[in-house]
Amino acid sequence: MSELIKKLNWRYAAKRMNGQTVPQEKLDNILEAIKLAPSSVGLQPYNVIVVENKELRDKIFSEAAPRQLQIPDASHLLIFAAWEKLTSQHVDDFINLVASTRNVSLESLAAYQNSINGGILSRSEEVNFDWAARQAYIALGHGLVAAATEEVDATPMEGFDAAKLDEILGLREKGLRSVVILTLGYRDHEKDPLANAKKVRRAHEELFISI
């Protein structure tokens, strides 16, 4: 069994956390993995808000996610927020970043830019928001795997009031809407009844279909 598979067997969605702080180096590695996640056309149409402040996490817990007991005792709360409206400026900024990073001319990227504009900006705002949210979930997956390799507990959550969370953080004013959240911290072996439970997964032959 590879080391990665051992780490993934170790991880689970912790139901309670113990308040211990994740070391900065481990946090940085998890955030770097999220940054390196793939996205369609490379646009990364989302932002990730990193909430360390305890008072703010408590406010989010009480007002937007009262069922998520991990939030108050987590080390950090990550909020994956998709761009509410994709614009030509987003595409221009991305193309400029590609040009400067790879040291190529803007002219050489014109066809690429036109393809993005024609394929994405021609769609409705709601279709593009749903697309952006799916890209954010890919980044979430990278964060979960990275956290496991660092032996940091990470619990993904959809059970929150997105509109209220957006209001608390002023996300709509930033052109963002929250889609999923992730707590980082360490499992509480005493308070979490699943801390020592066996992982339950469907059998390989039931999950995978070879054709």
Structural features:
Nitroreductase-like, oxidoreductase, 211 residues, 9 helices, four-stranded antiparallel β-sheet, single chain, Nitroreductase, 46% helix, NADP, alpha+beta
Please give a structural write-up:
- It is globular and about 60 Å long.
- The chain is of the alpha+beta class and 211 residues long.
- It has helices at 3-10, 24-35, 54-63, 70-73, 88-102, 110-121, 125-149, 162-169, 204-207; strands at residues 46-51, 76-83, 153-157, 176-185.
- A 4-stranded antiparallel sheet has the order 1-2-4-3, sandwiched between helices.
- Helix 2 packs across helix 7 (125-149).
Query: Count the strands?
Result: 4
> What order do the strands of the largest sheet run in, or round the barrel if closed?
1-2-4-3
Overall shape: it is globular
Radius of gyration: 19 Å
The profile of the biggest β sheet is:
4 strands, antiparallel
Low-confidence stretches: none
Number of helical stretches of at least 4 residues = 9
The overall average pLDDT, rounded, is 97
User: Which range best describes the helical content: under 10%, 10-25%, 25-40%, 40-55%, 55-70% or over 70%?
Assistant: 40-55%
Q: Order of helices and strands, N to C?
A: HHEHHEHHHEHEH
Distance between the termini: 26 Å
